[in-house]
Structure formats: C-alpha cells, structure tokens
Amino acid sequence: MKKETFLAAFFGVFFGLVFSFLLLANISQNQLEQKTKQLLPQKKEVSIIPVKTTSLKTLTINTPKNFLAAEREEIIIEGEAEKDALIVIQSPIKDLVFQNKKEKFKVNFPLALGENIIKVVAYPKNRNLKTQEKTLYIYYLPKEI
Questions:
Q1: What whole-number distance in Å separates Cα of residue 52 and Cα of residue 136?
Q2: Domain spans of the chain, in order of start
Q3: According to CATH, what is the number of the domain 60-140?
Q4: In terms of pTM, does the model score above 0.90?
Q5: Digit-coded pLDDT (tens) for 49-103
C-alpha cells in the first residue's frame, strides 16, 4: 500500500506541474498576442492635402561684382532676395542686419584697407526654406597710399 500511495502522490504532483506549465504557457502566449496586436500599425486613410506652392527667390548680388578693386572706402551693395527675408551682411569692420521689405535691396557698406571678405546671408521668413549665402571679395586700394 505504500507503493500505491507514493505513486498516487507522485503522479498527482507530476500532472499538477505539467498542467500548471501548460496553463502558464497559454496565458503568456495570449498576452504576447495582445501586445503584438497593439504594436502593429493601424491602417489609416491617407489624406492628400494640396501644398501651397512657394516661389523661392534666390539671393543675387547685382553690384558690386566679385573681386572688384575699389578706390573709395565705401561701396553700394545692391541685390535681390525673397520678400521679408532677414539679410545679414558681415565684414571684418562692420555687421549690418536688416529686413528686406521688397525683393530688391540697396545699402552703403564701408571697406577696410586691403582685402574685404564680405559675406551676405539671406534668411527667408519661411523656416522650411534654406538660408542662402554669397561671399564677395572686394579690394580697397586708394590711389595714394
């Protein structure tokens, strides 16, 4: 009778453990399926919104021409950029910042003796557009040194 009691207890524990492992595996599989269902992207309707076309006006410097040798200590910088763009003109002796009210701009700019590297940058009002940059090399060489 000892053998039958031992076998009954052993099989009871064995089948109980097997049943509990199967139950745990089934529960964890269901939880994993629920998580993956949530992680899958939901199909959404794609709506096409017409994009407002923007005409990009490129930064152009009309005067002075690059590598100009000037005899006066001041030049006039004329150019075109997008309307309402922020224009920044930098050189070793002066920085000038202004908002372009029209597409064309015209400013007086001083020169230092010798080589002047003048950087003109246009920041458009629309932040999605790129900034535009031009570099001018102007040489101020007076007749009498």
A1: 34
A2: 1-49, 60-140
A3: 2.60.40.10
A4: no
A5: 776 655 667 889 998 999 989 889 899 999 999 888 999 999 989 999 999 888 8
